[in-house]
Amino acid sequence: MTIAIILSSALLALVLAIALVLPSISSPAVPFGVRVPPQRVGDATVVRQTRLYRWRLLLSGIVTGGVGVVVYGATGETLLLPLSVLVLDGVWYGCFFLANHEIRAAKAAGGWYKDLHQGIAVDTELRTNPPRFPWPWLAPALIIIVATAVIGVISYPSMPDTFAVHYRANGLPNSVAAKSVGSAFSLVFVQIGVTALLAGIAAAIVRSRPDIDPAHPVGSARWYRQYMSLGAKALLGLVAMIDLGMLGSSLLMWTRTVTPWAPLVVALPILTAAVAAVVVLARNNRERQDAEERTGLIHRDDDKNWRGGLFYINREDHALLVPRRFGLGWTLNFGNPRAAMLLAGAAALIGLPVILRFGG
Amino acid sequence: MILSVDLAGDVPIYQQLRDQIVEAIAEGVLAAGSTLPATRALAADFGINFHTVNKAYDLLRQQGLIRLNRKTGAVVTPTVADPPFPAEWTARARTLLAEAVARGLPADEVLKTCQAILESFDARKPEGTP
Hints:
The structure holds two protein chains of two kinds. Chain A has ten helices and eight strands. Chain A is mostly helical. Chain A has two domains: 1-110, no CATH class; 125-300, no CATH class. In chain A, strands 1-4 form a two-stranded parallel ribbon. In chain A, strand 5 (306-307) and strand 6 form a beta hairpin. Chain A starts with a helix and ends with a helix. In chain B, helix 1 (13-27) packs across helix 3 and helix 2 crosses helix 3 (50-62). Chain B is built from five helices and four strands. Chain B folds into two domains: 13-76, Arc Repressor Mutant, subunit A (Orthogonal Bundle), CATH 1.10.10; 84-124. Chain B has helices spanning 13-27, 39-46, 50-62, 84-102, 107-124, and strands at residues 2-6, 35-36, 66-69, 73-76. A three-stranded antiparallel β-sheet of chain B has the order 2-4-3, covered by helices on one side.
């Protein structure tokens, strides 16, 4: 019970902290998902909206957390805790959209792009000499999967006849499965699936198209090369930690260890890796050197392809992954049919085991 | 190599691409034998129609600056100007210089500019290239 409160509060605090720092670590050229010319980066509207966004978010975060804990205390419904994180996500998008809307309005009213030379820059080097997939970073995940499988095979004869496959929030099992290769190695299959999916995304990231700023293309291209490599490594580090959590969970399952700390065995490595990945990418995001002489061109205004400031929908663009405008990482081009297939595949990958488990 | 296009410029995009590739060859950024991205890859990176890139590559091929190959894509060729080229180029340079003179730029300034541009090609050439 207390573990559930601690985990949910930690998650809530993490989401809130990320939401509060995102405007500082996102590209200043697209405040709140609105493309602005370089001379408008420090515009009064942008500064004021950033301040308003933070205040709105901080207040709603405190209210959401408070209400979640109070309602939970009154009803004892554990579902309310993760629900409060979801509510905060909704409120976060609301705060983002308000700022996005105001800056867009100021941009349209002030004619910020009038008489400016908009252009597109490309680094051909990224195609003729593309960044390499960081294979060594995949090794930890593969080693952990093999180790889990080997430990499982060796200890299979001595495993109990039934496994706890689902736990209540208090850490006590409420669902068991008979011992079989399928149930004993279920988490190994999850490890393989998640590793394949995230390694695929990492491979797509190193091949993705960077969004080079035509105002200082050389530095921008160099920065993106570094960013893509870091992003792929961070993702492979994250998958290694997910696999580690699955290894810990498998060990608990195989030895029938019942402990209230069981959720932490999975959550702690993943949360640590996620925080580390965010910190590494955020630090890199701040290091946008700008010593290069300006070319006279500026990034074209591409707001029309970004619905609601967050979702990239461009049917004419063949790219599958594009750098996110607000925050870190990449997002899918939802105008690309392959994105729909990828989403369906991921949903099937996550959904099938859940259906099978509950169905069985 | 960085390629950039001005979307609102008077020069067509294929011409902008072609000109920049020629400049990169002059500067030594693109040495003989270096490859250019495949047409579709470059078009996708720019988010432009691949026919535009095709047109630029085709111009460069006609002028003997690159070789198009199904397997290796576009490769910069070691170029030796063929006989009709100097005459053609002189005719175009004549028009360009005439514009400067007609607009009243002093001859020595025009000459200095030409010299400076030629030197800038040499200056940016990586060491070890002729």
